[in-house]
Every structure is written in structure tokens, then in C-alpha cells.
Amino acid sequence: MEAIRHTKIRVNGINMHVAEIAGDGLPVLFLHGFPELWYSWRHQMLYLSALGYRTIAPDLRGYGETDAPPSAADYSAFHIVGDLVSLLDALGLDQVFLVGHDWGAIIAWYFCLLRPDRIKALVNMSVVFSPRNPVRKPIESMRAMFGNDYYICRFQQPGEAEEELARVDTALVIKKFLASRNPGLLCVPKEVGLGGNPNSKITLPSWLSEDDVNYYATSFNRTGFTGGLNYYRALDLNWELTAAWTGVQIKVPVKFIVGDLDLTYNTPGVKDFIHKGGFNKHVPFLQELVIMEGVAHYINQEKPQEVNQHIYDFIKKF
Questions:
Q1: How far is Cα of residue 100 from the mean position of the Cα atoms in its chain?
Q2: Coiled-coil intervals in this record (predicted)?
Q3: What is the mean pLDDT of residues 10-15?
Q4: Which residues are catalytic?
Q5: How is the chain split into domains, by residue range?
Q6: What is the bridge-based pairing of β-strands 54-58 and 27-31?
Q7: Could you tell me the CATH superfamily of domain 5-315?
Q8: Residue 144, Cα to own-chain centre: how many angstroms?
């Protein structure tokens, strides 16, 4: 880990914390999800840098040591992709291999939609591309399909989710997210609270140490969760702003990886979309699809060696 260099770079009007391992080879940009940090890519950074790649993992806007504007209106896909294009410019990089997971995967799809010229190829994990519905906003659709207790619907009201999460030790919140292996729909009634039982005990899986949990918890204790939650609160704003991109395909080479226990893969309709032609229609340059058996959502941390190999096997072709 001492090989990883940490810097602050001014991008798109904010200060961004960037973890990087220098290399003479092609650059790989990693985008993390919720509730994560650059740190969730530590295994991939070390592995690919040992093969000569230049590995770059920022704390995205709202996370860790990167600035966190308070308003959800500052977390549109245009803001986040703007940060990343500005980062590439600051680093003097014309193109990168892009690797995303969870919200990082959503941002990666937007990056490829808006600026495909900057992406050599994409390895995306967990969250499949979601084409824009021209007639109904995302939150309205989720409420109709999954109810008001669906976790993304529960995240919408500013301050409410933060208050519920604050009732539970931050380390326990991190454990509940990262160690979850329930592939079912994540619905949380208000009487249960998003943090759940503050006295619950969670046995950590072998791939997640107390030190790992403490790294995340220390950061989120300092920043709170609002930055990350604002991505969910900007979903409808993204819908409004991207009307001109309705029906536009993802036109970069793609490898998609998901675990069969991932709650996103088991969301109603997603398997049919992936396996019955919808995914290929919207992502015509999809070259590889990997369903990892017995693997849950936080795939790059749960199965680092396998994911490392999957990434390398794909990007070495370019």
C-alpha cells in the first residue's frame, strides 16, 4: 500500500483526492460505489500496477477527502463526469481504461455515453446499463414497482436517511452494507430504520477485515453520508438533463461482470434484460459477460484475484 501516492487535484471547481500508482503503461481509472472510497480498488491497483499499468482511483465528489457540495443538484451525471474529464486533463491523459462498480458503474455508463472519445474500453461491475425511459422518471418508476420502502426511495428525503444511519455506529453501517449477501429486494420500513438494530453483531467475511471497516468508518464519521446519498437524490435530475441522449447506445468495448447473489442482478427485470437481448441492443460493443457464482454485490473486494484477472484479460487486448 505504500506504493500508492495520494494527491489533491483541482478539478471542475472542486478539490479531488486521488490515489495513484505511477507506471509507464496505459492508465486505468477506477470509479467506486456507495458506501465506498478509492480504497475499495486497492487490490486491483496493486495488481495492475505490478503489470506496468498506471492506476488511478479518486474519491468521487462527495466522498472521502474530495469536496462534498451540500446540494443534491450538484451531483448530476454531468457534474461527476465533468470532474473526471477535468481529472484526465489535469493528468495529461487523452484516454483511459475505465473500471466501475455500483455507483461508479452508473457514472462509467454516463461517461461512455457523454464522452466515449476519452474511454479506450470499459470493465463494469454489478450495475447494468439502464436506458432512459422517455415517459417516466426513475423514482416514480421505483415507487410504482417496488414501493415506498425500497431503499432508493427511502434515500430521497434530505436529512432523513442521514438521521436514521446516525442512530447506528458507522462501522456497523459499513459492515451491514459490505457483508450483506441477501440478493432480495432491499426494502427498509421506517420503523426498522436504514441503520437497523444498533446492537446487531455481524461476522465479517474473510475478505473484509476490521482494519478495512475502520478505514471506511473513519472517513464516513468525518464526512457523513450526505455526499453519497446525493447521487441517489440526483436520479430524477439526471433523467431531466439527459433527454437528448434517449436511445443513444454505449459505443465503447465493454466487459460486464456481476455476481449471481448481487441484489442488482436479482432486481426484477434485470436478468431478462441482460440475457434476452436488451443489454446487447443498448451496449452493442459488449464483448464479454461474466456471471460469477456465489458472489454478492461488493464483487471487486470479495473476489479480488478473480476480478483482477478478468480486468487484465480484457484490457490487455487493446
A1: 6
A2: none
A3: 98
A4: 102, 232, 297
A5: 5-315
A6: parallel
A7: Alpha/Beta hydrolase fold, catalytic domain (3.40.50.1820)
A8: 25
